[in-house]
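Researcher: Let's do a round of design. I'm pasting the C-alpha coordinates now; please hold your answer until I've finished.
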Protein backbone atom coordinates (compact mmCIF):
# COMPACT_ATOMS: atom_id res chain seq x y z
CA UNK A 1 0.00 0.00 0.00
CA UNK A 2 2.59 2.57 1.06
CA UNK A 3 4.84 1.56 -1.87
CA UNK A 4 2.03 2.29 -4.33
CA UNK A 5 1.41 5.65 -2.69
CA UNK A 6 5.12 6.47 -2.86
CA UNK A 7 5.33 5.56 -6.55
CA UNK A 8 2.24 7.55 -7.47
CA UNK A 9 3.34 10.60 -5.46
CA UNK A 10 6.81 10.57 -7.01
CA UNK A 11 5.32 10.21 -10.51
CA UNK A 12 2.84 13.06 -9.92
CA UNK A 13 5.63 15.28 -8.60
CA UNK A 14 7.73 14.62 -11.70
CA UNK A 15 4.80 15.43 -13.99
CA UNK A 16 3.88 18.65 -12.19
CA UNK A 17 7.50 19.80 -11.99
CA UNK A 18 7.95 19.25 -15.73
CA UNK A 19 4.76 21.22 -16.50
CA UNK A 20 5.72 24.13 -14.26
CA UNK A 21 9.24 24.18 -15.71
CA UNK A 22 7.91 24.28 -19.25
CA UNK A 23 5.43 27.03 -18.40
CA UNK A 24 8.12 29.10 -16.69
CA UNK A 25 10.44 28.88 -19.69
CA UNK A 26 7.63 29.90 -22.02
CA UNK A 27 7.07 33.10 -20.03
CA UNK A 28 10.40 34.65 -20.96
CA UNK A 29 13.45 33.83 -23.04
CA UNK A 30 15.61 34.71 -20.02
CA UNK A 31 14.77 31.37 -18.43
CA UNK A 32 15.90 29.55 -21.55
CA UNK A 33 19.53 30.49 -20.93
CA UNK A 34 19.94 30.62 -17.15
CA UNK A 35 19.75 27.78 -14.66
CA UNK A 36 16.52 27.30 -12.71
CA UNK A 37 16.38 26.33 -9.04
CA UNK A 38 13.55 25.03 -6.87
CA UNK A 39 13.02 28.48 -5.37
CA UNK A 40 12.35 29.87 -8.86
CA UNK A 41 9.70 27.24 -9.52
CA UNK A 42 7.96 27.88 -6.21
CA UNK A 43 8.08 31.66 -6.64
CA UNK A 44 6.52 31.27 -10.07
CA UNK A 45 3.77 29.05 -8.67
CA UNK A 46 3.04 31.59 -5.93
CA UNK A 47 2.68 34.30 -8.55
CA UNK A 48 0.31 32.10 -10.53
CA UNK A 49 -1.74 31.44 -7.39
CA UNK A 50 -2.11 35.16 -6.63
CA UNK A 51 -2.97 35.84 -10.26
CA UNK A 52 -5.70 33.20 -10.13
CA UNK A 53 -7.16 34.59 -6.91
CA UNK A 54 -7.28 38.09 -8.40
CA UNK A 55 -9.02 36.78 -11.51
CA UNK A 56 -11.60 35.08 -9.33
CA UNK A 57 -12.10 38.28 -7.35
CA UNK A 58 -12.67 40.25 -10.57
CA UNK A 59 -15.13 37.61 -11.84
CA UNK A 60 -17.11 37.68 -8.59
CA UNK A 61 -17.30 41.46 -8.73
CA UNK A 62 -18.73 41.20 -12.22
CA UNK A 63 -21.31 38.63 -11.14
CA UNK A 64 -22.24 40.72 -8.09
CA UNK A 65 -23.32 43.70 -10.21
CA UNK A 66 -26.99 42.93 -9.52
CA UNK A 67 -26.47 42.70 -5.76
CA UNK A 68 -27.55 45.83 -3.84
CA UNK A 69 -24.76 48.35 -3.45
CA UNK A 70 -25.16 48.29 0.32
CA UNK A 71 -24.25 44.58 0.57
CA UNK A 72 -21.50 44.46 -2.06
CA UNK A 73 -18.67 45.94 0.07
CA UNK A 74 -19.28 43.32 2.78
CA UNK A 75 -19.02 40.51 0.22
CA UNK A 76 -15.77 41.93 -1.10
CA UNK A 77 -14.37 42.24 2.40
CA UNK A 78 -15.38 38.66 3.21
CA UNK A 79 -13.65 37.37 0.08
CA UNK A 80 -10.43 39.22 0.91
CA UNK A 81 -10.53 38.17 4.57
CA UNK A 82 -10.94 34.54 3.53
CA UNK A 83 -8.43 34.26 0.71
CA UNK A 84 -5.70 36.66 1.76
CA UNK A 85 -4.52 34.31 4.56
CA UNK A 86 -4.69 31.46 2.06
CA UNK A 87 -2.41 33.34 -0.36
CA UNK A 88 0.00 34.30 2.43
CA UNK A 89 0.23 30.81 3.93
CA UNK A 90 2.96 28.34 3.03
CA UNK A 91 2.28 25.49 0.64
CA UNK A 92 2.36 22.98 3.49
CA UNK A 93 -0.12 24.93 5.59
CA UNK A 94 -2.54 25.27 2.67
CA UNK A 95 -2.34 21.52 2.12
CA UNK A 96 -3.03 20.81 5.80
CA UNK A 97 -6.07 23.10 5.66
CA UNK A 98 -7.40 21.09 2.73
CA UNK A 99 -6.90 17.83 4.62
CA UNK A 100 -8.73 19.31 7.61
CA UNK A 101 -11.62 20.33 5.35
CA UNK A 102 -11.81 16.77 4.02
CA UNK A 103 -11.75 15.43 7.59
CA UNK A 104 -14.55 17.82 8.55
CA UNK A 105 -16.68 16.76 5.58
CA UNK A 106 -16.39 13.10 6.55
CA UNK A 107 -17.12 13.98 10.20
CA UNK A 108 -20.34 15.70 9.05
CA UNK A 109 -21.34 12.49 7.27
CA UNK A 110 -20.97 10.64 10.58
CA UNK A 111 -23.65 12.89 12.09
CA UNK A 112 -26.43 11.46 9.89
CA UNK A 113 -27.97 8.38 11.45
CA UNK A 114 -29.03 6.86 8.14
CA UNK A 115 -25.40 6.91 6.95
CA UNK A 116 -24.06 5.02 9.98
CA UNK A 117 -24.02 1.53 8.39
CA UNK A 118 -22.17 2.82 5.33
CA UNK A 119 -19.74 4.86 7.43
CA UNK A 120 -18.92 1.89 9.68
CA UNK A 121 -18.32 -0.25 6.63
CA UNK A 122 -16.37 2.19 4.45
CA UNK A 123 -14.64 4.60 6.86
CA UNK A 124 -13.61 2.35 9.74
CA UNK A 125 -10.80 -0.16 9.34
CA UNK A 126 -11.92 -3.51 10.72
CA UNK A 127 -8.89 -5.84 10.70
CA UNK A 128 -11.08 -8.96 10.32
CA UNK A 129 -13.25 -7.57 7.50
CA UNK A 130 -10.82 -8.37 4.70
CA UNK A 131 -11.24 -4.87 3.23
CA UNK A 132 -8.03 -3.05 2.36
CA UNK A 133 -9.31 0.29 1.05
CA UNK A 134 -10.42 1.21 4.57
CA UNK A 135 -6.74 1.52 5.48
CA UNK A 136 -6.83 4.71 3.41
CA UNK A 137 -10.39 5.94 3.94
CA UNK A 138 -10.18 5.61 7.74
CA UNK A 139 -7.19 7.98 7.73
CA UNK A 140 -9.55 10.90 7.05
CA UNK A 141 -12.44 9.62 9.20
CA UNK A 142 -13.30 10.99 12.66
CA UNK A 143 -16.62 10.24 14.34
CA UNK A 144 -15.88 12.37 17.42
CA UNK A 145 -15.69 16.18 17.27
CA UNK A 146 -12.99 16.23 19.96
CA UNK A 147 -10.90 13.69 18.02
CA UNK A 148 -11.30 15.75 14.86
CA UNK A 149 -10.39 19.02 16.60
CA UNK A 150 -7.23 17.66 18.25
CA UNK A 151 -5.95 16.00 15.08
CA UNK A 152 -6.64 19.03 12.86
CA UNK A 153 -5.04 21.40 15.36
CA UNK A 154 -1.91 19.23 15.55
CA UNK A 155 -1.83 18.71 11.78
CA UNK A 156 -2.04 22.44 11.07
CA UNK A 157 1.11 23.02 13.11
CA UNK A 158 3.23 19.89 12.82
CA UNK A 159 2.08 18.99 9.30
CA UNK A 160 3.09 22.33 7.83
CA UNK A 161 6.46 22.13 9.62
CA UNK A 162 6.98 18.59 8.29
CA UNK A 163 6.29 19.83 4.75
CA UNK A 164 8.87 22.57 5.22
CA UNK A 165 11.47 20.02 6.30
CA UNK A 166 10.74 17.78 3.31
CA UNK A 167 11.14 20.79 1.01
CA UNK A 168 14.42 21.79 2.64
CA UNK A 169 15.72 18.24 2.39
CA UNK A 170 14.97 18.22 -1.33
CA UNK A 171 16.68 21.59 -1.80
CA UNK A 172 19.85 20.09 -0.28
CA UNK A 173 19.82 17.22 -2.75
CA UNK A 174 23.28 17.11 -4.33
CA UNK A 175 21.90 15.75 -7.61
CA UNK A 176 20.16 19.06 -8.34
CA UNK A 177 16.79 17.35 -8.76
CA UNK A 178 14.11 19.98 -9.37
CA UNK A 179 10.86 19.87 -7.41
CA UNK A 180 8.13 22.44 -7.87
CA UNK A 181 5.93 21.16 -5.04
CA UNK A 182 6.31 19.20 -1.81
CA UNK A 183 2.60 18.44 -1.52
CA UNK A 184 2.75 14.96 -3.01
CA UNK A 185 5.80 14.11 -0.93
CA UNK A 186 4.00 15.12 2.26
CA UNK A 187 0.83 13.26 1.29
CA UNK A 188 2.89 10.11 0.69
CA UNK A 189 4.55 10.52 4.09
CA UNK A 190 1.26 11.35 5.83
CA UNK A 191 -0.77 8.43 4.47
CA UNK A 192 2.12 5.96 4.86
CA UNK A 193 2.51 6.97 8.50
CA UNK A 194 -1.12 6.10 9.16
CA UNK A 195 -0.81 2.81 7.26
CA UNK A 196 2.15 1.83 9.43
CA UNK A 197 0.13 2.66 12.54
CA UNK A 198 -2.59 0.27 11.33
CA UNK A 199 0.06 -2.43 10.83
CA UNK A 200 1.28 -1.89 14.40
CA UNK A 201 -2.29 -2.48 15.59
CA UNK A 202 -2.77 -5.55 13.43
CA UNK A 203 0.53 -7.16 14.46
CA UNK A 204 0.57 -6.34 18.16
CA UNK A 205 -2.73 -5.21 19.61
CA UNK A 206 -5.31 -7.32 17.78
CA UNK A 207 -3.66 -10.72 18.39
CA UNK A 208 -3.86 -10.00 22.13
CA UNK A 209 -7.56 -9.11 21.88
CA UNK A 210 -8.28 -12.25 19.87
CA UNK A 211 -6.44 -14.34 22.45
CA UNK A 212 -8.65 -12.85 25.17
CA UNK A 213 -11.79 -13.64 23.20
CA UNK A 214 -10.77 -17.22 22.48
CA UNK A 215 -9.80 -18.07 26.08
CA UNK A 216 -12.44 -20.19 27.90
CA UNK A 217 -14.31 -18.41 30.67
CA UNK A 218 -15.52 -21.47 32.50
CA UNK A 219 -15.86 -25.17 31.88
CA UNK A 220 -18.67 -27.45 32.98
CA UNK A 221 -17.34 -30.28 35.20
CA UNK A 222 -17.93 -33.87 34.11
CA UNK A 223 -21.02 -35.55 35.63
CA UNK A 224 -20.66 -39.28 35.04
CA UNK A 225 -22.61 -40.26 38.18
CA UNK A 226 -25.59 -38.95 40.13
CA UNK A 227 -23.37 -37.93 43.02
CA UNK A 228 -21.03 -35.98 40.78
CA UNK A 229 -23.98 -34.23 39.12
CA UNK A 230 -25.31 -33.11 42.53
CA UNK A 231 -21.82 -31.91 43.49
CA UNK A 232 -21.44 -30.02 40.23
CA UNK A 233 -24.83 -28.33 40.69
CA UNK A 234 -23.93 -27.27 44.21
CA UNK A 235 -20.61 -25.92 43.01
CA UNK A 236 -22.31 -23.99 40.19
CA UNK A 237 -24.76 -22.36 42.61
CA UNK A 238 -21.91 -21.44 44.95
CA UNK A 239 -19.91 -19.86 42.14
CA UNK A 240 -22.75 -18.16 40.24
CA UNK A 241 -21.67 -14.66 41.15
CA UNK A 242 -18.07 -15.32 40.11
CA UNK A 243 -19.14 -16.91 36.82
CA UNK A 244 -21.50 -14.05 35.99
CA UNK A 245 -18.74 -11.52 36.59
CA UNK A 246 -16.34 -13.52 34.41
CA UNK A 247 -18.82 -13.71 31.56
CA UNK A 248 -19.48 -9.98 31.78
CA UNK A 249 -15.76 -9.31 31.72
CA UNK A 250 -15.28 -11.54 28.68
CA UNK A 251 -18.16 -9.93 26.81
CA UNK A 252 -16.48 -6.55 27.30
CA UNK A 253 -13.52 -7.67 25.22
CA UNK A 254 -14.31 -6.78 21.61
CA UNK A 255 -12.36 -6.29 18.40
CA UNK A 256 -12.70 -2.54 17.82
CA UNK A 257 -12.21 -0.89 14.48
CA UNK A 258 -9.77 1.96 14.01
CA UNK A 259 -10.23 5.36 12.43
CA UNK A 260 -8.61 8.77 12.52
CA UNK A 261 -5.27 10.30 11.61
CA UNK A 262 -3.55 10.03 14.99
CA UNK A 263 -0.85 7.72 13.63
CA UNK A 264 -0.07 10.14 10.81
CA UNK A 265 -0.02 13.09 13.22
CA UNK A 266 2.43 11.26 15.48
CA UNK A 267 4.64 10.68 12.43
CA UNK A 268 4.65 14.44 11.83
CA UNK A 269 5.44 15.15 15.50
CA UNK A 270 8.51 12.88 15.64
CA UNK A 271 9.76 14.03 12.23
CA UNK A 272 9.55 17.70 13.26
CA UNK A 273 11.07 16.99 16.69
CA UNK A 274 14.11 15.39 15.05
CA UNK A 275 14.36 17.96 12.24
CA UNK A 276 14.07 21.04 14.49
CA UNK A 277 15.29 19.95 17.95
CA UNK A 278 15.64 23.52 19.24
CA UNK A 279 12.00 24.42 18.53
CA UNK A 280 9.47 24.96 21.28
CA UNK A 281 5.77 24.21 21.46
CA UNK A 282 2.95 25.48 23.65
CA UNK A 283 0.17 23.19 24.79
CA UNK A 284 -3.49 24.20 24.70
CA UNK A 285 -3.91 22.93 28.27
CA UNK A 286 -1.74 23.54 31.39
CA UNK A 287 1.16 23.95 31.43
CA UNK A 288 0.79 26.50 28.63
CA UNK A 289 4.36 27.78 28.92
CA UNK A 290 6.57 26.85 25.93
CA UNK A 291 8.55 23.63 26.27
CA UNK A 292 11.11 21.96 24.04
CA UNK A 293 9.56 20.00 21.20
CA UNK A 294 11.61 16.90 21.96
CA UNK A 295 10.52 17.05 25.61
CA UNK A 296 6.89 17.30 24.51
CA UNK A 297 7.26 14.41 22.06
CA UNK A 298 8.92 12.24 24.69
CA UNK A 299 6.14 13.09 27.13
CA UNK A 300 3.28 11.99 24.86
CA UNK A 301 5.14 8.82 23.86
CA UNK A 302 5.71 8.01 27.53
CA UNK A 303 2.00 8.51 28.16
CA UNK A 304 1.21 6.00 25.40
CA UNK A 305 3.62 3.45 26.87
CA UNK A 306 2.00 3.87 30.28
CA UNK A 307 -1.39 3.40 28.62
CA UNK A 308 -0.22 0.11 27.07
CA UNK A 309 1.17 -1.09 30.40
CA UNK A 310 -1.99 -0.15 32.33
CA UNK A 311 -4.34 -1.46 29.64
CA UNK A 312 -6.04 1.85 28.87
CA UNK A 313 -8.46 1.62 25.95
CA UNK A 314 -9.53 5.25 25.45
CA UNK A 315 -6.85 5.79 22.78
CA UNK A 316 -5.09 3.58 20.26
CA UNK A 317 -1.65 3.60 21.91
CA UNK A 318 -0.03 1.03 19.61
CA UNK A 319 -1.09 3.07 16.57
CA UNK A 320 0.47 6.17 18.11
CA UNK A 321 3.77 4.40 18.73
CA UNK A 322 3.73 2.87 15.24
CA UNK A 323 3.21 6.28 13.65
CA UNK A 324 5.95 7.83 15.80
CA UNK A 325 8.40 5.08 14.80
CA UNK A 326 7.65 5.68 11.14
CA UNK A 327 8.29 9.40 11.54
CA UNK A 328 11.69 8.72 13.11
CA UNK A 329 12.67 6.28 10.36
CA UNK A 330 11.53 8.71 7.68
CA UNK A 331 13.71 11.45 9.12
CA UNK A 332 16.81 9.32 8.59
CA UNK A 333 15.94 7.49 5.37
CA UNK A 334 12.83 9.02 3.80
CA UNK A 335 14.28 11.92 1.78
CA UNK A 336 16.90 9.72 0.10
CA UNK A 337 14.27 7.06 -0.73
CA UNK A 338 12.05 9.78 -2.18
CA UNK A 339 14.79 11.20 -4.38
CA UNK A 340 15.82 7.75 -5.60
CA UNK A 341 12.21 6.86 -6.43
CA UNK A 342 11.74 10.06 -8.44
CA UNK A 343 15.01 9.42 -10.30
CA UNK A 344 13.98 5.96 -11.51
CA UNK A 345 10.52 7.01 -12.74
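Researcher: That's everything. Go ahead.
Model: Designed sequence:
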Amino acid sequence: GSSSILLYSAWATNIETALVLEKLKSQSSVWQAQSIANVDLRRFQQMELVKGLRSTYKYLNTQAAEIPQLIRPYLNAAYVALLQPYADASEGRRLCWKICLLNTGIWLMWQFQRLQPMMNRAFVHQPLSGLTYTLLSSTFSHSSLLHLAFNCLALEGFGSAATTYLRQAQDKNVTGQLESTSSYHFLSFYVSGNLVSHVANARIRYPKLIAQLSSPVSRTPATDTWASAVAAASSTVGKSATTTASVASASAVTIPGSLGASGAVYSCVTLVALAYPDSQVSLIFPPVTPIGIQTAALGILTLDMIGIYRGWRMMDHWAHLGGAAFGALYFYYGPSVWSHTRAIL
